Amino acid sequence: MVYPYFFVLLAAILWGMTGTAQTFLDKGVSSIAVATIRSAIGGGLLLVAVVLLRKISFRTWSWKWTILAAASIALFQGLFFTSIRLTGVAIGTVVTIGSAPMFSGMLEWLFWKTRPSKVWGIATIMTITGCMLLFINSGDRAIHLGGVGLAVCAGLSFAVYTNMSKQLMAQQEALPAVAMTFSICAVLLLPFSISSGFSWLAEMQNLWTMIFMGVMCTSIAYLLFLSGLQKISSSSAVTLSLAEPLTAAMLGVLLVGEHLSSTSWVGVAMLLGGIVVLTFTGRKNK
After folding, report:
1. Positive or negative CA dihedral for 87, 93, 94, 99?
2. Is 241 helix (H, G, I), strand (E, B) or coil?
3. Cβ-contact 214, 40 below 8 angstroms
4. How far is CA 276 from the centre of its chain?
5. Where are the transmembrane segments (predicted)?
6. What is the dihedral sign for C-alpha 10, 154, 115, 62?
7. Burial classification of residue 23, based on how many CB atoms lie within 10 Å of its CB (0-12 exposed, 13-18 middle, 19 or more buried)
């Protein structure tokens, strides 16, 4: 079946809008506060829905995997948004998601004893090469090493989240899983964001930006991602997530005014090639 791959691709495209959306927020807004509100909106709305629809049982819930997934995605968001501030939309997203497939494959192999397929290896090499070519797009701009380091740590955190969610999805449905994970994520982030305050939400541009990030880039995106993750491996899902830096790069050019060199356009082609290989060849190897 192809649809799980397309679900993950659509999720990645929505995630790719996150960095660009953040540029519409006031510059003084805390990265952790953004992650907190985004998670609260994305998880809270779904939690209300699943409770009203009686699609969740707190007594039999898989708390272990949920808490681990929530902690890792909370860490991911804090690291990712901070790296974006330091490195820029394109570079921060490319380094974060570009490093995640390697980490995900390692975690899958070490902890779940599942060796990634050759198709995954070929597709991952192609997509990571594409990311590296996009990274060259920084040109003469000084690279913030601290920001790059945070982006790599964010990539590891996302790989951990994906593997934890894979275990969670073996026991729970996607809708309540996203609702619980991001609601807990918001609670975990709240103590670190209270000091900066939330008065910035009074500005309509900030509020609408956060609603978009919460609903589209969190609720819908992660529902699609977990729905696809039920049918494919964690390593394949993370590799397909490399559509995110591709989306971010395109939006960076179209909306933020960032520039892509000819080398970077080759990187775009490599990214697309890797995604096509994994989507249409990987399914034949299931």
Report:
1. positive
2. coil
3. yes
4. 20
5. 31-53, 65-84, 90-112, 119-136, 142-162, 174-194, 206-225, 237-257, 263-281
6. negative
7. middle
Residue ranges of alpha helices (H) inside the chain are 3-22, 31-52, 63-87, 89-112, 118-135, 145-169, 174-193, 204-214, 221-229, 234-240, 243-251, 262-282
Contact residues for 249 (Cβ-Cβ < 8 A; gap 6+): 90, 93, 94, 134, 137, 258, 260, 264, 268
Domain that holds residue 200: 2-282
Task: Show Cβ contacts of residue 43 under 8 Å, excluding neighbours closer than 6 positions.
Answer: 178, 179, 180, 181, 182, 183, 184, 185, 186, 218, 219
Q: How confident is the model at residue 282 (pLDDT cuts 50, 70, 90)?
A: low
What does the alpha-carbon distance between residue 105 and residue 143 come to, in Å, rounded to a whole number? 27
Tokens 């993370």 map to which residue? 238
pLDDT digits (tens, 9 = 90+) for 164-181: 999 999 999 999 999 999
Q: Which of 7, 4, 25 is closest to 84 using CA atoms?
A: 25
Q: What is the DSSP string of 254-267?
A: III-----HHHHHH
The backbone torsions φ and ψ at residue 173, rounded to the nearest 5 degrees and listed phi first, read: -80, 160
Helices 63-87, 174-193: crossing angle, 10 deg rounding = 60
**CA–CA gap between residue 65 and residue 69 (Å, rounded):** 6
